[in-house]
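User: Before I run my own analysis I want an independent prediction to cross-check against. Here's the chain; please return only the structure tokens and, at the end, one sentence I can use as a sanity check.
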Amino acid sequence: MNSVYDGYSPAAGGKWFAGANTEAGFSGSYAEIAEEGSLARLYIIKGGPGTGKSTLMRRVGEAAEAAGHTAEFILCGSDPASLDAVILDGRVAAVDGTAPHTLDMVYPGAASELIDLSAFWDTGILSAARDEIVALASFKAAEFASAYRWLAAAGKILGEEASLARHTYLAEKAEGFAARLVKRLGKPEGHGIVRRRYTHGITMLGRRRTDGISDGAAVRYTIEDCGGCARLFLPVLADALTRAGWDITLGMLPLSGIIGGIRAGRFAFVCGGEDGDAAIRMSRFTRSDPAVRGELRLAAKLRESCLREADERLRLASESHFKMEEIYRGAMDFGAKERYEKRLIVSILDAL
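Assistant: Structure tokens:
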């Protein structure tokens, strides 16, 4: 049976996704990642595809690390080869503020600054390519809209899978185990604060996952799914951890608000895709029901079919996207941009 956690390949270069393509369209998490009021400084980058926004953020992060600071690299939810944000020492951030995650300054100058890469492109070249750019952008938008419809269908099937799983899920037994497990972890670290990050993405390059939850963990638990019950157990575990006083990070999947993993201090709990130091088998908390098992197999096949259609629509969208990147790259004065970039990096490091 295909688990909801299957089908995601590793993504490199970042801990989290800044947003995700979901059944309701694009969902960003800038409200938590780059909330202007809680940062010492926020740099909002504007520019077209291929103008070097991601490269700029990568260089800012690498320069900060070389200077002894921490850098948290946040991947683009549609193109995992690109960055959407970099956060330095948890207090200074540079983010991509263009659509679909449009971001504007709330406290201009006082807490935020605009980095406008349009200053380095040749408007004449782009104007001459207007018809092509419009056609490519329209095609990309149509394919994304189609992908969202397929994701909506997958989301409805996931809802049915959850209902079926509840018929076999031994909730009391699972809750008792979660309570005992949390007690064994020892003294909690934190005050029961919960933050959410996307660890999985349905992208133009396929389904991808990061190792943000398990990265640096001293102890990793792997949760082995059975009949879709892992998605029922993880919220129970999260609730037990927060009630005990742990600060936790939830690693989210793009569909149906499904939790893919939990980080609590030095402990990581991850479902699917990673080896762990200990296994939590969901078969312990399920009862056998051949009829339900058969329905779950059918639902999993239908859900996977919908996801594959969404994958294909996003792949087709990527063709237009990367063609637009080529056009914009051809219009850029990257020499001037890089000279500006060096001065900007010095200014950002001074802000730290």
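Sanity check: The helical segments are 30-33, 53-66, 123-128, 130-168, 171-184, 230-244, 290-331, 334-351.
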